[in-house]
Amino acid sequence: MSARHSTVVITGAGSGIGRATAEAFAADGWDLLLVGRRDGKLKETISGLTNPNCASFAALDVAEPGAMHHAVQDFAAAKGGIDALVANAGINPQRANALTTTDDFWDETLRVNLTGTHRSCQAVLPFMQKAQSGAIVTLGSIAGQVGMVDRAAYGPSKAAVIEYTRNLALDFGADQIRANCVCPGFVVTDINRDWLEALPAETYSQLIGKHPLGLGAPEDVAAVILFLCKPGARWITGVDLSVDGGYTAQ
Q1: Please, what are the averages of pLDDT over each run of 10 residues along the chain (250 residues)?
Q2: Residues labelled catalytic
Q3: Alpha-carbon torsion (185, 187, 192, 193), positive or negative
């Protein structure tokens, strides 16, 4: 019997960094469970993969109690285990300061970005513990590492994800489970493109100037995520890694 393929669960896989990550893992020969809120977007991701047959999907809300557990359990049973999780699902619904951030947007930002990450990790950890092996990559942000204007909810939610990931690394290292947080800078995704193009020319130029290597593409982040889930990263855990074109070097 041939050895099974490595398996990965990727949340927020319908677009942007999540979609690029799915493409990277598929090209590397993994079996994928793609998670997102909209099944149409997940199907689009699968149709663009080099081998669409390597992927299945589950349309759900990562922060909903029990939702991730059931999807992961079915995937693990079908594939023989879970080797990696990419907890990418996240939102930034309102760019506002502490006075103008609404209660609804505050609650929803933390619910998806932090609670959704937590429940995704909870779903995969028992399978990784059983195998005494696994890699978890969470998605933070440079907004969780340095202060930014009008990120009163988003920045703290991502800072919390960074700290949560450090705790995962310490709590489950004895089980040979690694946990790392990737913190992207400004990446040109479908969601961000309209916002970037609407910026005044001077503001856009200043933003570019803060990235010595320029703005990033989803593929730039996906390549790092894939590396952190592979054997070459076997001695890396508890790290918040800036993938930001040099933004945080200043």
Answers
A1: 81 97 98 97 97 97 97 97 97 88 95 98 98 98 92 95 98 98 92 80 88 95 98 98 96
A2: 154
A3: positive
Contact 91, 16 (CB under 8 A): no
First to last CA, the chain: 53
What domains appear along the chain, each with residue ranges and CATH number? Answer: 7-188+217-241 (3.40.50.720)
- Record the tokens describing residue 92, joined without a space: 């930034």
Query: What size, in residues, is the chain?
Result: 250
Q: Which residues contact residue 113 at a Cβ distance below 8 angstroms, ignoring those fewer than 6 apart? A: 90, 91, 154, 157, 158, 160, 161
DSSP 2: P
118: left (phi over 0), alpha (psi -120 to 50) or beta: alpha
pTM (two decimals): 0.95
Distance CA 75, CA 42 (A): 16
